[in-house]
From TrEMBL:
The keyword Hydrolase applies. Gene3D superfamilies: Galactose-binding domain-like, Glycosidases, Golgi alpha-mannosidase II. Coiled coil: none annotated. InterPro entries: Alpha-L-AF_C (IPR010720), ASD1_cat (IPR055235), CenC_carb-bd (IPR003305), Galactose-bd-like_sf (IPR008979), GH (IPR017853), Glyco_hydro_b (IPR013780), Glycosyl_Hydrolase_51 (IPR051563). One of its GO terms (biological process) is L-arabinose metabolic process. Keywords: Glycoprotein, Hydrolase, Signal. Belongs to the glycosyl hydrolase 51 family. GO terms for molecular function: alpha-L-arabinofuranosidase activity. Pfam families: Alpha-L-AF_C, ASD1_dom, CBM_4_9. It catalyses: Hydrolysis of terminal non-reducing alpha-L-arabinofuranoside residues in alpha-L-arabinosides. Residues 434-620 form the Alpha-L-arabinofuranosidase C-terminal domain. This is non-reducing end alpha-L-arabinofuranosidase. Its EC number is 3.2.1.55.
Amino acid sequence: YTLKANEIKASVSPQMWGIFFEDINFSADGGIYAELVKNRSFEFYTPLMGWHQPAATAGNAQVLIINRAGTNQQNPRYARITKMSDKDFVLINEGFRGMGIKANEQYHLSLFARQQADKPVKITATLLDESGNAIGTTVIAPDSREWKQYNVSFSATQTSPKAKLQLTFQGSGVLDIDMVSLFPQHTWKQRPNGLREDLVQLLADIKPGFLRFPGGCIVEGRELATRYQWKKTIGDPGQREVSVNRWNTEFAHRSTPDYYQSFGLGFYEYFQLAEDIGASPLPILNCGMACQYNTGEVVPVTEIDPYIQDALDLIEFANGDASTTWGALRAKLGHPAPFNLKMLGVGNEQWGPEYIERYTLFAKALREKHPEIKLVNSLGPNPDGDKFNFLNDTLRKLQADILDEHYYSSPDWFLRNAGRYDSYDRNGPKIFAGEYAAHSKGIGNGDNKNIWQSALAEAAFMTGLERNADVVVMASYAPLLAHVDAWQWTPDLIWFDNLRSYGTPNYYVQKLFANNKGTSVVPLLKDNQPVTGQDSVYASAVVDNNELVVKMINVSAKPVAVDVAVSGVKGLAKTAQLTVLRSDNLAEVNSLDDPKKISPEEKVLPVKGRSIAATIAPWSVYVVRVARQ
Ligand code: AHR
């Protein structure tokens, strides 16, 4: 192998390795969004979904759901508890497949309430563990005939991964309640309405170059009425209009009919998250088309202006100063400085001439007003299929900025396509590998696990992305997060239950590439050719300040001896830092109980002269960092 350290082939984009966030698999509600109460404002299709009335006290009160859509369209429903007697009445919220409760943690309970009769109703709130034992309790005594928010904090005495919140209504009278919310004290950066610390930390550790949000098909909705509308997701969480999740009941055998979006994690929080973890924000907006796998509903082009206006207003929300309407709102929400938006996606996996028609109108308006914003267009599913090819040809002719290619395919496809971009047009649009994952079985199949073979194949493929950094400017694995008890799609990068989380082997591949991104690509060749599978090895190299970083992946069952002769340097340091990610078993996985079974190991590699020599163990990812002189 030869490595020409002074022959810079391309700059690596600072955004190169990023993350794709979509509320699928309970990623947001029930996942990274730390709210513990499901259906907190009674807006699910069945208003008491997530709540139940134990038989023992069910006769002691009537629960009436009142809909005030005429005066409060954002949060129309609330519950009226009419006590029939002094006897206690109990309502229990089951959380998102239970509530993860930690011993000694403080919990903040808040709710809106209004007394309707002279005799007041008091609420005792109790956390129950899986066996029904009380593990924390507090009291709220509403004292007003007007809606008022009540906030109390209390601590839990025991840990429980599947706790419930019991509300006991005491005294005779009539009480209205709404927005019943429970958060742990410890959230990411201790923010109210915050995010789960462990999950954000896993994201931050990747050091992602960008954060794509909010999806995915969720941007499109199954029909236009349930598309993602960013303006409905900012401001007071109690006034964010709840919507059914696009992934509700997807793949019937893992049915999740209780999957809704509270939008507690909304666009302001997404921008804030991106900033927190040092990632460039990449919002994707609906382009006037619902999911073409479902209704395929489109807005007539004569009525597309509100959709385009949403995009223009979003740019102002992110970047405008306080003299602008939307910039002022951002400042009022707590972020006077701009969010530094540079890219925007128009539509998710759309296809056909109907997409081009709508995209053209978006592009005209956005380019006129905001030439500084790069636009991202998806090329639809199935790389190289008819739909993909039509969009690829048409968008190239239209001089699109960045094309978003998606590939969910077999590990073998990833190996065969490691050279995919070696011969791409260098003068056309840039490429965003926006959604990819190696699948060993079908999507939604529980056996389609994050096995080592899939991670290894992705690593091999990623050397091809890195080698072609002049064309490929961004890449993200998808989907990102999945709850072990409520997923619709496998595999996924990070898995969690209500208390624990772990990175898959695929996660560690992403992290290794992102943490060793470097600034420029240098040629790494075997017999003057890119290293794309000769002797079962895939490799690429970058420069990172005064260091060279070489990534080598051996996809075979045999060790492979490699000797990289480095030219263009006076010398190399006597030792290199070697990070190895490997397993002897291609079917191996990480799990909640064994989260680091496959995880990087740090070693020291002796270096002789200007040659990096290593015997790459079977089925391994090697990352070598060495200082150059
Ligand atoms: O990542 C899951 C889904 O795959 C995304 O929502 C969609 O864009 C793609 O089809």
